[in-house]
Amino acid sequence: IVSRKNQPDSTVIKVKDTLVGGKASIMVAGPCSVESYQQTREVGAALKEAGVPILRGGAFKPRTSPYDFQGLGVEGLQILKRVGDEFGLATISEIVDPRHLEEAVQYIDIIQIGARNMHNFELLKAAGETRTPVLLKRGLSATMEEFLHAAEYIVSRGNTQVMLIERGIRTYEKWTRNTLDISAVPILKRESHLPVLVDVTHSTGRKDILAPCAKAALAAGADGIMVEVHPNPAVALSDAQQQLNIPEFQKFFSDVKESGLLK
Ligand code: PEP
Ligand code: MN
Q1: Is the predicted ipTM greater than 0.85, yes or no?
Q2: Which residues span the membrane (predicted)?
Q3: What does the DSSP assignment read for 10-57?
Q4: Which of 14, 57, 159, 183 has the most CB atoms around it within 10 Å of its CB?
Q5: CATH superfamily of 13-257
């Protein structure tokens, strides 16, 4: 179903007033984790001012260590909804457990399935039973074929509103957090009609190369970019090193916009 052979026209997904996968490319930004109303609101206000339509924020965090901050759970989703409604932004948050989906879709506009859960087939099937758009991340070491099959798990259950997002893969390279696989963008666009985004933050883990990587992704045909933004990254409860503060985000966004690649 996800193959372009089966559907030559690109899928366009409408989220609130924003179209994903159409002629325009979009920016998705927000904190790694929703930590408080105040923190999320500060980012939401900056997105509104910049004209960024989609706010991301993790509420159920799949942390490497069980002793690290695990997220605010449903309260985090409620904060996202409050801020989204306040500024007219669509919202995205990761769901890690099929049992949370029904409640979650009351609060968020897009369900994120994270890299660690790309192979969680019961979660994929459950997301496929909803009628809420899904942002599916590429697994930590998933091939293109595995990635597209994961998307197929969702759409085969009737939820055709799936967006793919390249977020870097594991390689031997240590100077970036993951290796951004730019070639994934034109391959996925060719093989599938689904929208393709690139998460420049998790793929690189480096604030100093976000703008050139975002431009490269857009030049390669990406339908959107995701970036992490926090009002005070130094005290962030997750991914403190890689999040942009608000002035850094504004600079990043205008740099990408001025390139003319963000349409
Ligand atoms: C995230 O986007 O917050 C996240 C945890 O990313 P990934 O699943 O790509 O590691
Ligand atoms: Mn993060």
Answers
A1: yes
A2: none
A3: PP-EEETTEEESSSS-EEEEE-SB---HHHHHHHHHHHHHHT--EEE-
A4: 57
A5: Aldolase class I (3.20.20.70)
